[in-house]
Design a protein that fits this description.
The complex is a heterodimer of chains A (259) and B (376). Chain A is built from 1 helix and 10 strands, in the order H-E-E-E-E-E-E-E-E-E-E. By secondary structure, chain A is mostly beta strands. An 8-stranded antiparallel beta barrel of chain A has the order 1-3-4-5-6-8-9-10. Chain B contains 5 helices and 27 strands. Classes of the chains: A mainly beta (259), B mainly beta (376).
Chain lengths: 259, 376
């Protein structure tokens, strides 16, 4: 009896295994089939901005997208026979940066020394900010073919900060020490104070993206893709910048279709 | 072209959400100016930036009026930070025979600043002329030297300690450039040390701080900007100073620091000097720019400066005696002006001669004791 049961179990498992193997094969086959591979190179235009702009920011005097090149490998799987709907994913290196100069009023500011000494308060004057972040990025989007040479896509992206720099200086203004009514300390005569919040940057970033691509030639595509970060670029326990900042970037790229 | 449209929409979205918004109500709550009839004022320069007075529990503003003024019924008017309000009201009559307390509330309504307005007759009190450096009081985290005056008053010395406090580097009053030491010539003495200001000091471009002690006031407002103008020299003096004497010890720091780095071929030296000058509306205060300009000013009356030959390193208390030189400036002393308190005096000590311009050797230490001002 025991032996009977045992052989039955063995038989069953062999059968299921082979069936699974078969199914997996077809699944893998279909997975491997009809993928479209593309290498995209381009740059990001945008910025890390509080949205909407907080009232502390009175004027943006200067803005420059530090157009940094990036590269992305993308693969698209068409889900239907007509290649109308698809999924796209990939991996890429995205360099997101900007350089700004703003006039602010009662902007919460902290100058932190390497020895952990700190001078904080309410800053009125100019703030220069330079950001240069390198992210490892994974997009995940649904693609829809509008016309034979034109696709739109929408979805999510997930990023991991490989290297980040968020620094700048404050100048031509004054600090009210600790509170808006604290001791007034003037920064004139070329006096500046440097700040660096690089180590307060958050590692994991995610957001939504919408984009479109246009097949200019048989193997060349032009991409436009707007990515909108949904979590603050800083750690949540970083309180000095009192408002969350989100990376909003337009990625302009040229893609080479491999298949 | 659809792509173009999409880009337009995307940029539009960015721009729309990132508009500059209406300015928030002002959070500042300062008295910028206090207005009283000009004919009653004995001194037109009023200091609005005095530090918080822990005894008064308010920011003090001292106003000196002429002797015949009735203090019990005055109605000062105030200029305040934009949008701020004051209680009691600006222009309301108050009794100023004792300090009157005002509270300024910011436009935002969230911030308050307490003020004590002290209107008093012009002080003609003679400052003490013997300085023993035995007494200090603790303010914030640092010491302020004072000498007791004949009528139980206090004469306080100014120093750059409030500026050093910003660096957050000191954890005790003894970590400050200007502090007290028990190793005096007699009793305690003043100990002035040139110190590095640390990472934060570097970030604001002020890498070192010399210990200093002077008569006048230190304006924190300018400590990180035009630092030379932060040291405002002088207090009224009603006599003709002739000589400054005292004792010092000096040890120069091992390595000279300037322009952001150490140099090996320079030796630090200290400074002791005293100014006697005429205060005018154009030049209400001599400041750190004066020594930087080799003590040249049309307002200078006399200068007492320790000779280069005498600025030596010494481990034993060394006596110094410096005459006031009146001949260099050749400006006669007017007795009326003298009685009106229009001549100002300042005695200045610093552990690095050019410390106010951020040149000096960290570790340079100047000890000062039993200083005496001789006058006619």
């Amino acid at each position: 009896m025991k032996r009977y049961i045992l052989s039955l179990i063995t038989g069953l498992s062999v059968w299921t295994l082979s069936a699974q193997e078969h199914r997996r094969e077809t699944f893998i086959k279909s997975l491997l089939h009809d993928w479209e591979y593309e290498v995209i190179t381009g740059f990001q235009i945008g910025g890390m901005a509080p949205i909407p702009l907080p009232r502390e920011i009175r004027e943006i005097e200067y803005y420059s997208p530090t157009l940094l090149p990036g590269i992305e490998g993308r693969m698209t799987k068409w889900l239907d026979r007509n290649k109308r709907w698809g999924m796209t994913t990939g991996i890429g290196i995205a360099n997101k940066g900007m350089s700004t100069r703003a006039q602010v009023k009662s902007y919460s500011m902290e100058i932190i020394g390497n020895d952990n000494s700190r001078l904080k308060g309410s800053w009125t004057g100019k703030v220069q900010t330079k950001v240069r972040n390198t992210y490892l990025t994974f997009p995940l989007s649904a693609v829809y073919k509008l016309r034979p040479t034109f696709h739109i896509q929408s979805g999510f992206y997930f990023s991991y900060l490989l290297k980040g720099k968020f620094h700048g200086k404050v100048y031509e203004g004054y600090l009210r020490k600790d509170t808006p009514t604290g001791d007034k300390i003037s920064f004139d005569n070329g006096a500046t104070a440097l700040y660096d919040f690089s180590d307060k940057l958050r590692r994991f970033q995610w957001g939504i993206q919408v984009g479109a691509d246009w097949q200019a030639f048989k193997q060349i595509k032009i991409h436009g893709n707007l990515t909108w970060g949904l979590n603050d670029i800083f750690h949540s326990h970083f309180q000095t910048i009192s408002f969350p900042m989100y990376p909003v970037f337009l990625h302009i790229g040229i893609g080479y279709v491999l298949k | 072209m659809k792509l173009k449209e999409l880009i337009f929409i995307a940029t539009g979205l960015l721009v729309l959400t990132s508009c500059i918004r209406k300015e928030a109500p002002n959070q500042e709550a300062d008295i910028l100016r206090c207005i009283l009839p000009a004919e009653i004022l004995a001194d037109k320069s009023i200091d609005y930036s005095l530090p918080f007075d822990t005894e008064l529990k308010a920011y003090p503003i001292y106003i000196e009026v002429k002797g015949e003024t009735n203090l019990s019924n005055l109605a000062p008017q105030f200029e305040l930070s934009t949008g701020a309000t004051i209680q009691p009201a600006s222009g309301s009559y108050q009794d100023f025979t004792s300090p009157v307390y005002y509270t300024v509330t910011s436009e935002s309504g969230t911030e308050h600043r307490p003020y004590a307005i002290i209107i008093r007759y012009k002080q003609t009190e003679q400052i003490p002329t013997d300085y023993h450096f035995e007494h200090v009081e603790l303010y914030d985290n640092y010491y302020i030297f004072y000498e007791e005056t004949d009528n139980d008053g206090r004469f306080t010395w100014a120093s750059g300690n409030p500026g050093y406090a910003l660096t957050g580097k000191a954890s005790s009053p003894y970590d400050f450039p200007t502090t007290i030491s028990p190793d005096g010539y007699i009793g305690h003495c003043a100990k002035l040390t040139t110190l590095l200001t640390g990472s934060l000091g570097e970030k604001v471009g002020k890498p070192i701080a010399a210990g200093n002690l002077f008569m006048g006031k230190f304006e924190l407002l300018n400590a990180l900007g035009d630092a030379l103008s932060a040291t405002k020299f002088g207090v009224p003096f009603y006599h003709r100073p002739t000589q400054l004497t005292g004792y010092f010890k000096y040890q120069s720091g091992p390595q000279f620091y300037e322009d952001g780095k150490y140099t090996s071929n320079k030796k630090d030296t200290f400074s002791i000097y005293a100014l006697f000058y005429e205060k005018t509306n154009e030049m209400p205060f001599m400041d750190g720019h004066l020594p930087a300009n080799h003590f040249e000013s049309p307002n200078m009356v006399a200068l007492a400066q320790l000779d280069k030959a005498q600025t030596i390193e010494t481990e034993v208390w060394t006596y110094f005696e410096i005459p006031f030189d009146y001949t260099r400036y050749n400006l006669p002393v007017d007795t009326d002006k003298q009685q009106n308190g229009e001549y100002y005096l300042s005695i200045v000590f610093a552990s690095s001669k050019d410390g106010d311009e951020f040149r000096g050797a960290p570790g340079s230490t100047l000890m000062i004791d039993e200083v005496k001002l001789i006058y006619e």
